Amino acid sequence: MSTTVDLSMPTVPRVRRTPQEIADAAPVAGARRVLLAAPRGYCAGVDRAVIAVEKALEHYGAPVYVRKEIVHNKYVVSTLEERGAIFVDETDEVPEGSLLVFSAHGVSPAVVQSAVDRNLQTIDATCPLVTKVHREAVRFARGDFEILLIGHVGHEEVEGTFGEAPEHIQIVNSPEDVATLEVKNPDKVVWLSQTTLSVDETMETVNLLREKFPNLQDPPSDDICYATSNRQTAIKEIAPQTDLVIVVGSANSSNSVRLKEVAEEYGAKRAERVDFANQVDESWFEGVATVGVTSGASVPEVLVTQVLDLLAEYGYGEVEEVVTAEEDILFSLPKELRAKLAQDGDNSRQLGGRGARPKR
């Protein structure tokens, strides 16, 4: 029997340079301030998915299995693990007859069937906006269209959508892919997209596709979700005014990574992404007067608050919220879970999302 030995380095407490040391290293011209983007953080689909796991733990008890990360955020995943959620990569890791939650990113029909084959009880926490793209793929495939799916190869959302009609779908990973694309019938081609992409890059790809295939059809409605678009619009407003932008979000969160890229493209002198406040390097503040702060759509507000608290310690106590949109989207919890809540008489939370933006 082999024994696994942990050879990782121990965590060493960080000793930060003091605010005075940072100020002495590079004096700041003008007052220090923070521009806080709104909207930011949780979207309705993420809120719905996280609540689904929390409610499943309350009403079914631990363990509750979740295929992949319920949303792409380290803090959310670790918090749910502490409560009894077990995250797995595939259904064959789940004991037969157990409860399995599908993540917000969606799954392919093959994954659904594998859960049925293992006699798993399932709760589908797929974001309704991702489900919409799945339905579009099925409908266009039935019409014998070739579907050009703009998205990142290997992302769970793209894998799920591709699995709806693999014989009809080609994945377009970047604008550079367009040059080598070939289709059977250029008169029956449609594009769809991953919901969390850069709006600008997606439209660049679409324009190139349309140049190559003039009869390219559009999806019935925009596939990039409202939350992704709104958060990118907010950072575009803030970026030109900032010396530094801090994006709170995980490295595997597509929309968080895009926010950093958008900040850089729209004029921020520097942009950094962190999961937690303790990852912020105080040397970033040298010579910085204005800091922009935003967060990806899978980030709870507590993580943003911790970054703001750190900034305040370094003299960035003046916070101005820059509002570019109001969000009032609400999604019902998954139907399988609603039935269980009704059976147990739980009326405490039936919707995911925010009826109004939280004020600061």
From TrEMBL:
<feature type="binding site">
    <location>
        <position position="105"/>
    </location>
    <ligand>
        <name>dimethylallyl diphosphate</name>
    </ligand>
</feature>
<feature type="binding site">
    <location>
        <position position="105"/>
    </location>
    <ligand>
        <name>isopentenyl diphosphate</name>
    </ligand>
</feature>
<feature type="binding site">
    <location>
        <position position="298"/>
    </location>
    <ligand>
        <name>(2E)-4-hydroxy-3-methylbut-2-enyl diphosphate</name>
    </ligand>
</feature>
<comment type="pathway">
    <text>Isoprenoid biosynthesis; isopentenyl diphosphate biosynthesis via DXP pathway; isopentenyl diphosphate from 1-deoxy-D-xylulose 5-phosphate: step 6/6.</text>
</comment>
<feature type="active site" description="Proton donor">
    <location>
        <position position="157"/>
    </location>
</feature>
<feature type="binding site">
    <location>
        <position position="127"/>
    </location>
    <ligand>
        <name>[4Fe-4S] cluster</name>
    </ligand>
</feature>
<feature type="binding site">
    <location>
        <position position="105"/>
    </location>
    <ligand>
        <name>(2E)-4-hydroxy-3-methylbut-2-enyl diphosphate</name>
    </ligand>
</feature>
<feature type="binding site">
    <location>
        <position position="255"/>
    </location>
    <ligand>
        <name>(2E)-4-hydroxy-3-methylbut-2-enyl diphosphate</name>
    </ligand>
</feature>
<feature type="binding site">
    <location>
        <position position="254"/>
    </location>
    <ligand>
        <name>dimethylallyl diphosphate</name>
    </ligand>
</feature>
<feature type="binding site">
    <location>
        <position position="298"/>
    </location>
    <ligand>
        <name>isopentenyl diphosphate</name>
    </ligand>
</feature>
<feature type="binding site">
    <location>
        <position position="155"/>
    </location>
    <ligand>
        <name>dimethylallyl diphosphate</name>
    </ligand>
</feature>
<comment type="pathway">
    <text>Isoprenoid biosynthesis; dimethylallyl diphosphate biosynthesis; dimethylallyl diphosphate from (2E)-4-hydroxy-3-methylbutenyl diphosphate: step 1/1.</text>
</comment>
<feature type="binding site">
    <location>
        <position position="253"/>
    </location>
    <ligand>
        <name>dimethylallyl diphosphate</name>
    </ligand>
</feature>
<feature type="binding site">
    <location>
        <position position="255"/>
    </location>
    <ligand>
        <name>isopentenyl diphosphate</name>
    </ligand>
</feature>
<feature type="binding site">
    <location>
        <position position="255"/>
    </location>
    <ligand>
        <name>dimethylallyl diphosphate</name>
    </ligand>
</feature>
<keyword id="KW-0411">Iron-sulfur</keyword>
<dbReference type="InterPro" id="IPR003451">
    <property type="entry name" value="LytB/IspH"/>
</dbReference>
<keyword id="KW-0004">4Fe-4S</keyword>
<feature type="binding site">
    <location>
        <position position="298"/>
    </location>
    <ligand>
        <name>dimethylallyl diphosphate</name>
    </ligand>
</feature>
<feature type="binding site">
    <location>
        <position position="43"/>
    </location>
    <ligand>
        <name>[4Fe-4S] cluster</name>
    </ligand>
</feature>
<feature type="binding site">
    <location>
        <position position="195"/>
    </location>
    <ligand>
        <name>(2E)-4-hydroxy-3-methylbut-2-enyl diphosphate</name>
    </ligand>
</feature>
<feature type="binding site">
    <location>
        <position position="155"/>
    </location>
    <ligand>
        <name>(2E)-4-hydroxy-3-methylbut-2-enyl diphosphate</name>
    </ligand>
</feature>
<feature type="binding site">
    <location>
        <position position="72"/>
    </location>
    <ligand>
        <name>dimethylallyl diphosphate</name>
    </ligand>
</feature>
<dbReference type="Pfam" id="PF02401">
    <property type="entry name" value="LYTB"/>
</dbReference>
<keyword id="KW-0479">Metal-binding</keyword>
<protein>
    <recommendedName>
        <fullName>4-hydroxy-3-methylbut-2-enyl diphosphate reductase</fullName>
        <ecNumber>1.17.7.4</ecNumber>
    </recommendedName>
</protein>
<keyword id="KW-0408">Iron</keyword>
<feature type="binding site">
    <location>
        <position position="253"/>
    </location>
    <ligand>
        <name>(2E)-4-hydroxy-3-methylbut-2-enyl diphosphate</name>
    </ligand>
</feature>
<feature type="binding site">
    <location>
        <position position="225"/>
    </location>
    <ligand>
        <name>[4Fe-4S] cluster</name>
    </ligand>
</feature>
<feature type="binding site">
    <location>
        <position position="254"/>
    </location>
    <ligand>
        <name>(2E)-4-hydroxy-3-methylbut-2-enyl diphosphate</name>
    </ligand>
</feature>
<keyword id="KW-0560">Oxidoreductase</keyword>
<feature type="binding site">
    <location>
        <position position="254"/>
    </location>
    <ligand>
        <name>isopentenyl diphosphate</name>
    </ligand>
</feature>
<comment type="function">
    <text>Catalyzes the conversion of 1-hydroxy-2-methyl-2-(E)-butenyl 4-diphosphate (HMBPP) into a mixture of isopentenyl diphosphate (IPP) and dimethylallyl diphosphate (DMAPP). Acts in the terminal step of the DOXP/MEP pathway for isoprenoid precursor biosynthesis.</text>
</comment>
<feature type="binding site">
    <location>
        <position position="155"/>
    </location>
    <ligand>
        <name>isopentenyl diphosphate</name>
    </ligand>
</feature>
<comment type="similarity">
    <text>Belongs to the IspH family.</text>
</comment>
<keyword id="KW-0414">Isoprene biosynthesis</keyword>
<feature type="binding site">
    <location>
        <position position="72"/>
    </location>
    <ligand>
        <name>isopentenyl diphosphate</name>
    </ligand>
</feature>
<feature type="binding site">
    <location>
        <position position="253"/>
    </location>
    <ligand>
        <name>isopentenyl diphosphate</name>
    </ligand>
</feature>
<feature type="binding site">
    <location>
        <position position="72"/>
    </location>
    <ligand>
        <name>(2E)-4-hydroxy-3-methylbut-2-enyl diphosphate</name>
    </ligand>
</feature>
